[in-house]
Structures are given as structure tokens and as C-alpha cells.
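seq:
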Amino acid sequence: MNTFFFFYPHCYLKSTDKEILVYDTLNKRYVYQKKYPLLQSEKKSIQRGYLTVSDKHNDFLNRCLINDLGYYLDFENVVPFMYNRNIEFVTSLDKERKSIGYNLQSYTNSLLRDVTILLNNGKKELTVEECLQMEYPIYNNASIDIDYLLKQLSSFQFLETIILSGELKKSLLCNALEYAQKHNVHVIYRILYDSVVNTTTFELLDKYSNLSIELLVDSLSEIAQIKTIIKDKICVKAIIKTVNDVEKFKGLEDILYLPVFSLKCVNTDVLMQMILSEEEILNSTKTIKDYLLSDYINPAIYGHLTIDYDGSVLCLGNRIASIYETDLASLVNHWIGEDGCIWYETRKKKDMCRDCALQSLCPPISIYEKMGIYKCPCEI
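struct:
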């Protein structure tokens, strides 16, 4: 008689060289065991959703049973059907490359979903590091060839959102909105509150159904004045540099907070508020699909690129190439086939996260990590 312990299909399973996690994505129950290495054959069985009962695993499996994460099943000759719980890809870059020797642009073009275009910025006060965290242009008054930038996007038939970040003449903004409306693309206009020249920018919200505005405010902004312009399709995002800044914005409803740090003096009070405890990570609200995808891609940045005002194409602050050297479609086609493509930079590839079974529950790699502001979301 053989006995297996089968984990329920809605349970996310993760086994590393040192830890194991069984996580009920519906009811948030879990068994998380540190210092619990499995044999390679046991890891393979976990991938298929079961573990062979043995004295070694009795305590662990009984805890799983108590938490209603699965069930025991006895069998003699015929092994029960077991499916592969991992995501299976119908097609992929690797499969296409092995088949024909390279990746077709028709395929790689379908992967770009969101683009941020960095425009002008007349505010000298913002540092390069602060702009990088805000995905906002550094101080510049360069001539923006918005038509050329938009032409670069014409090959990407599945593009969903264009974020126009920074200052832009109203006529050029209207050109961009007309293009986006024609191609059924949503536009987010990201602008510093004190850079808005006049209220006619907000009047465009009524004219263009595909437009929304992301208004960046700081602790010096007049809250009472901001309240008078808030309406549908305007998102207020507050730049937070100290914990006291949060108090400043308590009068605003439905506000998002954007922590911004100076690398010369990182405010540890704000940073400590961002660091997650083990309990907070285990209280994740994501679906099992989200966890499985996090094993393969960085979901926060996958499908997203930034184009700087000088034509540089960036991803999480890393420069890839320039659209004045090669067209964007060719650039993307070449870049996503490289080992260093940030879209596929996951926690299991990061040295300090590789052995942690919570890696897929944890927030994905962010600009804060890339800049060295913190090591990972659970450690400064």
C-alpha cells in the first residue's frame, strides 16, 4: 500500500533548496517550513501537487491536513492521475528561437503593453534620483518630437496605455490624444501640480474619453486648492519624503502615496514603513495565477518601457538603447531575447531571495532595489 498526500489545486506550492511553502490562495491558510530541504525527486512531486508520505514528512503533512491544505490517498497498483501545476506556455521566445533561429517581430511586438514617454521639466529642484523614482523627466527644455515618438509605437498592435510624463504644449498633447484615440489607446498625463500652466489642461478630460491625469503633489502644495480641481479621471499621487508628509495629505480622499528618497540621506522612517514583515507577506491578496507568473516574469514591469526625451529607451532606470539608433520594434525584438532582460528578472534569480519560499508572494523587484535604497521588500 502506498500513500500520497495531495494538495488542493487552489494551493500555491513553493519549494527551494532550504524552505517549503504550501499556501491556500482562497482562505489564506498556510504551512511555511524553514530549514526543510527536499530531494530533487520530492521537488518534482511537489510540482505535480503531491508528496509521498514518509516518517520524514509526517509532521509537516499533518500540519497541512490540519490547515485543510490537502488530503491523504492510499493506492496499490495504479498511480492516481496527477497534472503539472506549473504554467504551460503554448508558445514562447525560446520555442520560436529554437524553431527558426530568431524571434519574429510580429510576436515580440505583441508583448509591449505600456509605454512612458518622458517630456520636459522646468523644475530644477528635482534630483536625477528623485525623477527616476517618480518616472518623471529630469530638468530639460528639449524640443519634443512627439510625432516621431508616436510613430515608433505604431507597430505595437496590443499597446494599451501611453503615459506622457512631464510638461508638454497643449497642441502637442492634443496631437498625442488624437493618435491614441485613433488606435484605441488610453493616455495618462502625469504632471507636477505646480507645473500645470492653466486649467485648460483639465478641460481636455471632457473632450477625450481616453485621457486621465495623474497629478503629482508634494508637501508644499495647497491642499484646499487641489480639492477644487479633483474630478473624475484625475488621480492625485502624493510625493512622500517624510512620515509627516502623510499627515499633510489626510484631507484628500482616494490619494496614492509615492515614496521618494534622496540617496545622500535616505529617510529611514519612511523606509521602515515600506519594509514588509513575514506576516504581511503571508497575508497577500494575489491569486494563484499571480504567484505562478511571478516565477517567470516581473509582473510590475513586464510589457512596460520608458522612452526618455533624448530617445533613450529605459527599463527600471537601465538604458537599453536609443530609438535614434534603431527603431523601437527592432530594439524590443533584440532586447527581450537577451539574458539581462529585466522583464524576466524574478526573485528566484536574485541571490538573497533564491532560497526563500515566499519569493513569489513578495512584491516584485522595483526601482527602489535597483537604486540600492533597500535590498528587498523585507530587508533594508
